[in-house]
Sequence to fold (611 residues):
Amino acid sequence: MIETQGLTKRYDAATALDSVTMKVPEGSIGLLGENGAGKTTLIKLLLGLLKPTQGSARVLGMDITRQSLELRRRVGYMPEDDCLPLDVTGMDFVSRMGMISGLPKTAAVQRTHDVLYLVGIGEERFRPLGTYSTGMKQKVKLAQALVHDPKLVLLDEPTVGMDPKGRDEMLQLIQDIRKKMGLQLLVSTHLLGDVERICEAVVIIRSGQLVAQGSLKELVGDAAESLHLRVAGPVEKFVDSLRTDGLKIESVGNLLTIRYENDSIYETIMKRAAESGVQIRRMEREAPSLEDFFIKLHTEEDKNVIAS
Amino acid sequence: MSSPPKGVIYDQGYRPYEGRFGGRRAALWTMIWADFQRALGIKKSGWYKFGLAFLLALIVIPAIFLAFTAYLLNNLQQVGQLELRLFLSAYYDWTNTWLLLLSAMIASDLLCNDRRYRVLPLYLARPIESYDYLLAKSAAIFGFLFVVSLVPALGILATKVFLSENAIQFLGTHGRDVGATLLSSLIYPVFYGSFAMAASSLTVSRNYAFWGAVGSVILSGLIAASLLATHNDYLSLINFSQIVAGAKNALYGVSANEWVRIFSARIETTLPSLDPWVYAGAYIAFVTACASVIYSVYRREGL
Fold:
């Protein structure tokens, strides 16, 4: 879907993107990174809105510098910023964007109605955009990215500024779009939860450099599962006995986190709890998450920095 | 018994698009037409429509007055025939200020809002070249102003043609004036349109853009007037309006404000009059400077 080779973007004093080489498969891909990592620069380069300082990239098989017009016909873009003219109706705005994308007027109007209905904008489509709530504006931004039937949609922080309910609706909408329309998605965000919910693979960027990429399963698989326990009684004796069994434990007061190895761990915990006279009030198993992978990534990087 | 009618689906919901896509030209035309409609006041507030109607009236009324004057003078044999160019030159001098106001109003509305609401990335993400955005804005602004300034002038021309004994001969004799009218209807919109666009590109506030453009021209006029005592005709070019007026006068082959002869041949005018090439050079330099300002601002915005 997206291939880059040494893609670099430098401004006068800063390097926004530094020699990024990646191959992103089709599907729903998360582009993760902190604020200022280079995500929006990468998106603008892929859209052909910026010229790379060095390197090349192909999106949907098209070169971003030589075929940028054709590329933008097949790609939809939902920017992060508030970018809607407040004195134009939703209907007028989305249909105009459709016509500028090359749709004939009749098709643009028909498709505008279809996509606005799809994203959940009803009769409000005939009101000026200035009267819309934040959630509705995000939906209109998504609608203008879909109106011309793109093959790939680039979403830059799609849930920014939304309340929890609105975020949930937007994420569900994006999932539905992916399933029902079969669109390829590139979702740029700094929210790990959003990526875990809607993406199949992840590209992680930090300070303009690619630090990791792969499917969620590949990246998160390295991180171990954990057991979280809340106990009552002689905690230290219990912890010491578990450590002698070779278990890795972190404890804070009566809260213990034990690295899960295999199912035999339960038997060991129960046995040692009975011997120590400890009551297990709560035990919870936690699957590895992207956050665990991030923490691991940070820890390894910090170690490298200290070592150097 | 006949079977009940089968259901008909009128709305099949979202479907992939399988039709043709227009090219860049279609996209450009869409943008130009949308901006032209906006300039016309379509789907704009009542105040905008009122302001637009008021300014259009101020532009048309002088043309009606001059056409009527031409009709009256045609019947006053002792005055004789006054040249067509005087009437047309007068029209542009009288409507100069209203064209400036109209340019400032339209340009500020079309340019400031898009930057204020940061809509540019959505346009640039479309299959258009980066300069197409400004191309469309310019075409809409210049096109609108061209129509507004040309049509009343053609009304004056039509009146003179109607009053002449032989229309074809009249047009043949006054071919230069017809050409000058077409060109004047172009140079005024380009001049004031580019200046208004430059002022609008420097701010996201429509009010600041409007009053900045209008105030700059007024200020330039005041400064030039205060320097009249130096009797240096080149200093008259400090007055922005004088640049385009001088170019227009060169096209018609009239001196500054020569049209006063319509009302009295005894009135003398002593306004500056430079070589036509000076006005042409000043005009080109002014428009180029405005274009440079617009380009540099929008380049920073991502164009």
